[in-house]
Design goal:
CATH architecture of chain A: 3-Layer(aba) Sandwich
Shape of chain A: globular
Number of domains of chain B: 1
Largest sheet of chain A: 8 strands, mixed
Number of helices of chain B: 2
Distance between the termini of chain B: 38 Å
Shape of chain B: globular
Largest sheet of chain B: 5 strands, mixed
Helix content of chain A: 25-40%
Structural class of chain B: alpha+beta
Structural class of chain A: alpha/beta
CATH class of chain B: Alpha Beta
Radius of gyration of chain A: 18 Å
Radius of gyration of chain B: 12 Å
CATH superfamily of chain A: NAD(P)-binding Rossmann-like Domain
CATH class of chain A: Alpha Beta
Strand order of the largest sheet of chain A: 3-2-1-4-5-6-7-8
Oligomer: heterodimer
Strand content of chain B: 25-35%
Largest interface: A-B, 45 and 22 residues
């Protein structure tokens, strides 16, 4: 693909990296990424992927912008209070980079629509805020063989891992089942340092870009844990569970489950 | 030297906000019992019927105990044990 002079200038800092170059930038421009959630994680993930020039970004969320979101959800503003989050994010992203085709989907992701929705995308980024969606997204990505970059946050901590179907472990290899309701405090009742999603969502975008360009090592088989109070990043191993109910050779889960 | 146990944010209410506490060598299950005696309520948050709950992982250094000897995995002096529950915020 040929970049215009303007595009060449816009992506120059990428293009001058030998690991990226025009070829890598062309891969980014052709890529299609599906983001689940337009909140704390989806804002920076979508914003940076837009800045990077990803060809198509779909973003799904069923909520509207609330004042209590603005402490961390940087895709939104006082101008979009009360409006659908996906519309607000689309406006923000398009004003940063009109090259990018932003598809705003104001719907709830369910077991009935997810397989069709993610089918055309090169990667899925889980920026959702509940366990039901996280397990649904993982299982659907395994069934559709779509790479998944999943991030989650709580108070002063964040977690991040990559699921590459057929190659590494999945989210269910890491955590087999969602906790029963009320087993853990809900994020909305527990508080959250506003920069936590900034760190984790940005790292999710970084994993997506590496995956698209084909450089570096992806967080496959590893869980990265960030703690803001200790300013620490550490990794633990995530082995593939040979008896995983969804990604093993003999899965016991062959249909999507609605945990909500 | 003792065993260093990393307490995740959601359980720090039980440890007066401490993110690291000391434990005794032994098995994982004896360590959890020890923690529960010092920090009542910890046991039931991590285990159910003597088994680690399915949304909680325990790592010795950076190895997941499910791929070692699970609850019977030995913890030695100087080991670092991390308790990592699934989190869902976004």
């Amino acid at each position: 693909m040929k970049f215009t002079q303007e595009q060449h200038l816009r992506y120059l800092r990428h293009i001058m990296l030998p690991e990226v170059g025009e070829e890598g930038q062309a891969k980014i421009a052709k890529a299609k990424v599906f983001i689940v959630g337009a909140g704390g994680l989806g804002s920076p993930a979508g914003y940076y992927l837009t800045a990077a020039g990803v060809g198509t970004i779909a973003i799904i969320d069923n909520d509207n912008v609330d004042l209590s979101n603005l402490q961390r959800q940087i895709a939104h503003s006082v101008k979009t209070l009360g409006k659908p989050k996906v519309e607000s994010a689309k406006n923000t992203f398009e004003s940063l980079n009109p090259d990018v085709n932003i598809i705003a989907i104001k719907e709830r992701l369910t077991k009935n629509n997810i397989l069709d929705l993610i089918g055309d995308y090169d990667a899925v980024v889980d920026c959702s805020d509940n366990f039901a969606t996280r397990f649904l997204v993982n299982d659907a990505c395994i069934m559709k063989k779509r790479p998944l970059i999943t991030g989650a946050i709580f108070q002063f901590e964040g977690q991040l891992t990559a699921v590459i179907p057929g190659e590494g472990p999945c989210y269910r290899c890491l955590f087999e089942e969602p906790p029963p309701p009320d087993a853990l405090p809900a994020p909305s009742e527990a508080g959250l340092l506003g920069i936590i999603p900034g760190v984790i969502g940005t790292l999710q975008a970084s994993e997506v870009l590496k995956l698209i360009i084909g450089i570096g090592s992806i967080l496959k088989g590893e869980l990265l844990i960030y703690n803001a109070l200790k300013s620490s990043f550490r990794k633990v191993k995530v082995p593939k569970n040979p008896h995983c109910p969804v990604c093993s050779e003999n899965p016991t889960i062959t249909e999507l489950i609605d945990y909500s | 030297m003792a065993v260093k146990v990393r307490i995740p944010t959601p359980l720090q209410k039980l440890t007066d906000g401490k993110d690291e506490v000391e434990g005794e060598p032994g098995t994982i299950i004896s360590l959890i019992n020890f923690l529960n005696s010092k920090y009542p309520g910890m046991g039931e948050r991590i285990t159910e019927g003597g088994k680690v709950r399915k949304f909680v992982n325990i790592y010795i250094n950076d190895e997941d105990i499910r791929f070692l000897k699970n609850e019977e995995t030995e913890v030695k002096d100087g080991d670092e044990v991390s308790i990592v529950p699934a989190i869902a915020g976004g």
